[in-house]
Amino acid sequence: MAQPVSVMVFCHGTEKVSNGQLEKLVRKHFELTPKGILDTLICAGRIYTPTAAYGHFGRTEPPIFTWERTDKVKDLQKDA
What are the percentages of helix, strand and coil residues in the chain, rounded to 5? Predict the structure, then answer.
């Protein structure tokens, strides 16, 4: 099945809208099929060695870790 069976959002009590609303926003704004995840995160771009060598926190070079992008913030805020 290409679409996820479930999506769960847990914000540890910091959410400004309900978890149900957040789950709907995630489903709307993120492509959660296996191909969509690979395309979004650009997983084919071999970043395993830099991640394993020094982790992905506190880096000063240009961002290579696509999961840290915040490019969907404005769209999520608008729809929330």
Answer: 45, 0, 55
CA pair distance 53, 20, nearest whole angstrom: 38
pTM above 0.85, yes or no: no
Question: How many whole angstroms separate alpha carbon 56 and alpha carbon 35?
Answer: 23
Read off the DSSP letter of residue 12: T
DSSP for 39-74 reads HHHTTTS--HHHHHHH-SSS--SSP--GGG--TTHH
| pLDDT tens profile 20-45 | 999 999 999 999 998 888 888 776 56
pLDDT value at position 25?
Answer: 94
Cα angle 65, 77, 28; round to 5:
75
User: Is there a contact between 16 and 47 (Cβ–Cβ < 8 Å)?
Assistant: no
Q: Return the SS3 of 80.
A: coil
